[in-house]
Amino acid sequence: MSDGIGKGVGIALGCAFGACLVAFASFAASNAAGLVVILGIGIVQAAWIVPLWLHYRRAGEAETAKGLIIAAGIIFLLNASCWGVVTTMR
Questions:
Q1: For residue 12, what pLDDT is reported?
Q2: In the chain, what is the straight-line distance between the N-terminal and C-terminal CA atoms, in Å?
Q3: pLDDT by residue for the chain (90 residues), tens digit each?
Q4: Is 90 domain-assigned?
Q5: Is residue 72, in this structure, part of any structural domain at all?
Q6: In the 3-class helix/strand/coil scheme, how is 29-90 assigned residue by residue?
Q7: Which of 43, 48, 44 is nearest to 15 (CA)?
Q8: In this predicted structure, what is the pLDDT of residue 19?
Q9: Which DSSP state fits 13?
Q10: At residue 71, what are phi and psi to the nearest 5 degrees?
Q11: In angstroms, rounded to a whole number, what is the distance separating the alpha carbons of residues 78 and 36?
Q12: Which domain holds residue 78?
């Protein structure tokens, strides 16, 4: 596979989407861990982004590693802004 920022973004978004699907299924089964993943995806994603980033950095795919960090930052900022809206609503 080729090295590229788009590849990293795609991998990160795919992992986040997969985590949300697992979290929704877990939450539907009355598991509180699913709620933590759904509500805190911006922080919880570090569990898979950091190992993936290290893997691609060591493999010499610096652009893919950059794409992972870019997507993780965007997901984190979207989650933080949504929490800001929710917590400031009256």
A1: 95
A2: 49
A3: 577 999 999 999 999 999 888 888 877 777 677 777 777 787 788 889 999 999 999 999 999 999 999 999 999 898 888 888 888 887
A4: no
A5: yes
A6: CCCHHHHHHHHCHHHHCHHHHHHHHHHHHHCCCHHHHHHHHHHHHHHHHHHHHHHHHHHHCC
A7: 48
A8: 86
A9: H
A10: -65, -40
A11: 16
A12: 5-83
Q: Which two tokens stand for residue 9?
A: 């973004």
DSSP 2: -
Residue with tokens 């090295």: 3
> What CA–CA distance (Å, rounded) separates 43 from 4?
24
Residue 1: both structure tokens together:
């596979």
Give the model's pLDDT for residue 30: 72
In a domain, residue 44? The reply is: yes
Of 88, 55, 84, nearest to 12 (Cα)?
A: 55
Does residue 89 form part of some domain? no
Number of domains in the chain: 1
Whole-model pTM?
0.82
d(CA 60, CA 73): 21
